Amino acid sequence: MAKKKLKLKKSILYRFTFSIIFLIIICILFFSSYFIYTKSRKIAYYTSKNKDYSYLEIVEMSDSFADIGNKELHFVRDNKNIYVVAISKKEIKGYQNVMNYTYGKTKERKTMKIYGYPISKNNQIKKLEMKYINYFLPYEERININYHNYNQYLFDTYLDTTINPLYQFNYIVFLLLLLFAILLFIFIKIIVFKGSGSHEKV
Question: Which of 125, 155, 165, 182 could lock onto 48 through a cystine, CB 3.0 to 4.6 A?
C-alpha cells in the first residue's frame, strides 16, 4: 500500500513538473510569435529610400495640383520636409482641417498621420511639382527648383494613400503558432487526463 502511494505521488509530481515545463515552453513560443509578428508589421516613417508601406505625420497640406484618375496630388509638410502624396478624391474632406490651417483659415494646428506606399514619379509629375511648389510655400521660403537640384527638395517617389497594406505571410510565425497549438493541446491533455491510470481496479 505504501509503495502504491509512493508511486502515485511520484506520478503526480512527474505530471506536475512536466506540465510546468510545457507551460513555460508554450509561453515562450507565444511571446516569440507575438514579438516576431509585431516586428514584421512595424510601419516605418516615409523616406526617400523606403519602398514599403510607410507613414507621415503631416502638419500642412496644399490644395490639389494634379489629378491621377480618382486621386489628387498634394504637397504636404511634416516638421522638416516637403513631400507629395496621392489622396482619393472621396476622402479629401478628411484632410480639410490640415488644409484650413495651411491657408490660415484656422489657427488650430493639428498633426495628422497618413499611410501609403511609395510610388515612383514620372517626368510629368515632376514638372508639375516644380511649377506649383512655390504656390504652397510662404513667400520667404520659395525656392528655385529644377531637374538639377530636384532631389535637394523632393523625393523621386510620392506616398500613395489609396493603396491598402498588403499582408505578407510570415512562415516563422506560422510554424511557431502551429507548434504552440500542438503543445497547448498536449498540455491540456496532460491536465485533463492526469488522473487516468492512477485509480485501482475494484
Answer: 155
Whole-model pTM over 0.70? no
172 and 76 inside one domain = no
Burial class (CB in 10 A: 0-12, 13-18, 19+), 113: exposed
Buried b (16+ CB within 10 A) or exposed e, 36-49: eeeeeeeeeebeee
Among the listed residues 67, 58, 161, 155, the one whose alpha carbon sits nearest the alpha carbon of residue 112:
58
| Residue 72: Cβ-neighbour burial (10 angstroms; 0-12, 13-18, 19+) | buried
pLDDT tens sequence across 91-111 = 999 999 999 999 888 888 888
- Residue 200: inside a domain, yes or no? no
Q: Of the candidates 60, 55, 86, 56, which has an alpha carbon nearest to the alpha carbon of residue 73?
A: 86
